[in-house]
Specification:
Elements (H helix, E strand, L loop, with lengths): L1 H4 L17 H10 L1 E3 L5 E3 L24 H23 L11 H31 L21 H9 L3 H23 L11 H45 L3 H36 L3 H5 L16
Antiparallel strand pairs: 1-2
Helix pairs in contact: 3-4, 3-7, 4-5, 5-6, 6-7
C-alpha cells in the first residue's frame, strides 16, 4: 500500500546516512564504526553484542524487496477476463427482445464494478489530496494516479444507473472505460520517457489488465457487429444471383413462359390504350389533308321525271 501511495521520490538512490531511520541499518552502521583507545590503538566501537529478547518465529529481513509483479499480473489478468466477459455480455443483449439488458446482466457487471471502482476511486482521490493539499513530498508526482485513477470514482454512480437500466449509464460506462484504459496504457508507455522514473511495475501489472478488460468487452462487441453486418450485406447481395443460377432449366423455362405471357398481356393492353387515344385525337383534331383539299359538295339529286 505504501508503494502505491508514494511517488517517485522514494525510488531515488539514498546515502547511508539517509537510511539510518531503519533500526537494522543503525545496527549495521554502528558495527563498522571504529575508535582510538587510550593506548592509541584502533578498536571497534561495539565491544560485545547481547540479545535481550529472542524472536524464534520472526524471519530475518530480506536483502532485496520482494518482487510481486508476476503475482499481481496474474490477479490483474483474471480480473480483466472477468470484466471483459461481463461487459461483453451486457452490451451484446438481443435488441429485438428488450429495449435494455436483462436484470441479471446488469447486476452481474454493476455489483463487482461498483465495488472495485469504489476502492480505486477512493485511492485516486486520496493520492490527489496528498499531492495538492499536503507537504508530504514522498506523495508528489505519483504515477499510480494513472492506474488508481480518480476518474473511476464515477463508476459507482454509473453502476447504480446500470442496475436501474438507465440508457445514459450504458453510454457512460463505455466512454469512461475507454478513457480509463487509455490512461492506464499511457502510464506503461510513458516509462520510455525520462520524466517517468517511478518503480511501479507491480501496480501497472495489477490495474492495466483490469481496465483493459473492462474496455475490451464493448470493443469486441462493436467489432463483431461490424463484421456481421458486412457479411450479411454481402450475402444478401449475392443470394438472388446465386438462386437464379442454381435454378433448374425446367423451372427457368416455366418462368420464361410465364414472363412472356405476362409481357404479351401488358403489350396488348398498352396497344389498346394507345389505339383508343388515337381515336379520340382523330375526332377532336382536324385532319391536315382536309384543310389542304377543297371541301366536296354533296351531289345534287337528279330531276324528278313526271310521266303522264
Amino acid at each position: 500500500m505504501l508503494n502505491l501511495a508514494m511517488g517517485n521520490y522514494i525510488d531515488q538512490p539514498i546515502t547511508e546516512w539517509e537510511e539510518l531511520f531503519v533500526p537494522e541499518k543503525v545496527q549495521q552502521m554502528v558495527r563498522k564504526v571504529e575508535t582510538v583507545d587510550a593506548t592509541g590503538q584502533t578498536v571497534p566501537l561495539v565491544r560485545v553484542e547481547r540479545t535481550l529478547v529472542e524472536a524464534p518465529h520472526r524471519k530475518p529481513p530480506p536483502d532485496m524487496p520482494p518482487n510481486r509483479t508476476w503475482s499481481w499480473l496474474i490477479v490483474g489478468l483474471l480480473g480483466g477476463l472477468l470484466f471483459a466477459a461481463l461487459g461483453y455480455r451486457l452490451v451484446s443483449y438481443p435488441a429485438e427482445e428488450s429495449a435494455k439488458p436483462s436484470v441479471g446482466r446488469r447486476l452481474a457487471l454493476a455489483i463487482p464494478l461498483g465495488a472495485w471502482s469504489t476502492v480505486t476511486g477512493f485511492l485516486g482521490l486520496i493520492f490527489v489530496f496528498f499531492w495538492t493539499m499536503t507537504d508530504h513530498e514522498v506523495a508528489y508526482h505519483n504515477e499510480n494516479l494513472l492506474q488508481a485513477n480518480p476518474l473511476t470514482a464515477a463508476f459507482p454512480v454509473i453502476s447504480v444507473g446500470l442496475m436501474l437500466g438507465k440508457p445514459w449509464a450504458l453510454r457512460a460506462f463505455k466512454n469512461l472505460a475507454y478513457v480509463v484504459a487509455s490512461l492506464s496504457l499511457f502510464g506503461l508507455m510513458a516509462k520510455a520517457l525520462p520524466w517517468f522514473t517511478q518503480v511501479n511495475g507491480d501496480s501497472i501489472a495489477l490495474f492495466l489488465p483490469v481496465w483493459f478488460g473492462l474496455a475490451a468487452g464493448p470493443i469486441v462487441h462493436v467489432a463483431g457487429s461490424s463484421g456481421t453486418a458486412g457479411s450479411g450485406a454481402s450475402a444478401g447481395s449475392a443470394t438472388p444471383t446465386a438462386a437464379f443460377c442454381a435454378t433448374a432449366p425446367e423451372a427457368r423455362e416455366g418462368k420464361d413462359d410465364a414472363v412472356g405471357e405476362h409481357a404479351g398481356r401488358v403489350q396488348a393492353a398498352t396497344g389498346a390504350v394507345c389505339w383508343r387515344g388515337l381515336c379520340r385525337m382523330s375526332r377532336t383534331m382536324p385532319s391536315p389533308m382536309a384543310n389542304s383539299m377543297p371541301s366536296a359538295k354533296p351531289p345534287k339529286a337528279p330531276p324528278a321525271i313526271t310521266t303522264v
